[in-house]
Amino acid sequence: MPRPDTGWAGVGTGAGLGGAGHDGRVRIEDVTPETMRPVRRPWLVQSWHDLAFLHWAVPPETVSPFLPRGTVPDTLDGVAYVGLIGFRMVKLGPLRGPGIPYLGTFLETNVRLYSVDGRGRRAVVFLSLDAERLLPVLTAQATLRLPYKWSRMSLEKNDGVLRYASTRRWPGPRVPGRPFRYAWEPRSTNPRPSSTS
């Protein structure tokens, strides 16, 4: 698969998973609670609810072909990570407004990698961004050049277990997705990811 030239967005919070994924010639950004590269005037605001962050360790050479030119995998203890993230986007809207009614609240699932560029900046590389509302998908494709896809999505919540399901509508083949479940105990610091079946 060719390297994507678009479809990646930098994240200044050091969202990469820390460490020696770079060639060592440039100092890599620290992982900090607050962004090291703050946005001066955000033109979109949003909140995330019912968030599930699932990650799998993979060899860096496995993810390298999927990263943009000029970047390398961000690693932790010699491994890279592939993330599957499901959440409910709430009150997406311009500037610091109240959010767009109906269109500003929707389910999203993304598949991501973490990278470091030649200047030591960490970033998130989105391989897939699926959302259940068509207008936000089209807007993100046109204005941000992100690889959003329109999908039929659902979220079930039962006894602390989140179950996300997604089936791609457009663009691309309509291949049924496999739901994933994520168990979360509010008083636990150790969430229990379940299978993706």
Put the structure in a nutshell.
With 197 residues, the protein is mostly beta strands. It has two helices and ten strands.
Would you write up a description of this structure?
- The chain has 197 residues and is mainly β.
- It has helices spanning 60-63, 134-144, and strands spanning 8-10, 44-58, 71-73, 80-94, 106-117, 122-131, 148-158, 161-170, 180-183, 192-193.
- Strands 1, 2, 3, 4, 5, 6, 7, 8, 9 and 10 form a ten-stranded mixed beta sheet that branches.
- The longest helix is centred in the C-terminal third of the chain and has 11 residues, at 134-144.
- It is globular and about 50 Å long.
- 26% of the residues are buried.
How are the secondary structure elements laid out?
Blueprint: E1 8-10, E2 44-58, H1 60-63, E3 71-73, E4 80-94, E5 106-117, E6 122-131, H2 134-144, E7 148-158, E8 161-170, E9 180-183, E10 192-193
Parallel strand pairs: 6-7
Antiparallel strand pairs: 1-6, 2-4, 3-5, 4-5, 5-6, 7-8, 8-9, 9-10
Order of helices and strands: EEHEEEEHEEEE
Distance between the termini: 26 Å
Average of the residue pLDDT scores: 80
Number of helices: 2
List keywords for this structure.
43% strand, ten-stranded mixed β-sheet, globular, mainly beta, single chain
